[in-house]
Every structure is written in C-alpha cells, then in structure tokens.
Amino acid sequence: MNMSINEDEKENLLASLGTANLAFQQYYPGDRPDRQPVHTVYGGANLFKSDTCPRMGETALKHLRTYAPNFAEFARAFPASISLS
Predict the structure, then answer these.
(1) Are 39 and 57 in contact (CB under 8 A)?
(2) Mean of the per-residue pLDDT values for the chain?
(3) Which of 10, 18, 50, 68 is the most exposed place for a label (fewest CB within 10 A)?
(4) CA-based angle 63:32:74, to the nearest 5?
C-alpha cells in the first residue's frame, strides 16, 4: 500500500489550502499589535473554571491596593529612565 501522495495531487492540495488560508487571513487578520495580552495563562482546559478570570482580576486588584495604593506609590515601581507617556 502506497502511503504517500503523488506530486500532482500534493500540488493541487497545497494550492487549494493556500487559497483557503489567504481567504481566512483576509477575514480573520489576527490580533492588532496594539492589542496584545498583558497576561498569558498556561494550563490545561481542565484547570480553567468559570471564575478563573474574575478571580485573577480580584487577585491583581488586591496586589495593586496592597503595593500601590495611590499613583505615587505606583510610579515608584518604575525606574526614572522609563517614560510612561
């Protein structure tokens, strides 16, 4: 039994996939560079729960209130050489 695709069939298949991929990219261009995620969470789908995002947000706010309760404390976290504008 031959387990490979002959060259002509492969070229036709790749051309068809190329056309479909271009159409997909036109419709779904991907994330804009100015809208990249701040956090990426790695883990299996079995670890994700319906309250994962709100709990992460609550934890982030708790840390912000603890370590940067006002704008002055928050600004001290950044070296003077970093421009925040």
Answers:
(1) no
(2) 85
(3) 50
(4) 25
Q: Is the pLDDT of residue 83 over 70?
A: no
pTM over 0.85: no
Distance separating alpha carbons of residues 26 and 39, to the nearest angstrom = 27
**Residues 6 or more apart whose Cβ sits within 8 Å of residue 68:** 74, 77
* Percent of the chain as helix, strand, coil, to the nearest 5: 60, 0, 40
Quick one: pLDDT at residue 85? 57
Q: What's the token pair of residue 53?
A: 């995002």
- Computed from CA positions of residues 7, 11, 16, 18, in that sequence, does the dihedral angle turn out positive or negative? positive
Q: Rounded to an integer, what distance in angstroms lies between the CA atom of residue 48 and that of residue 21?
A: 30
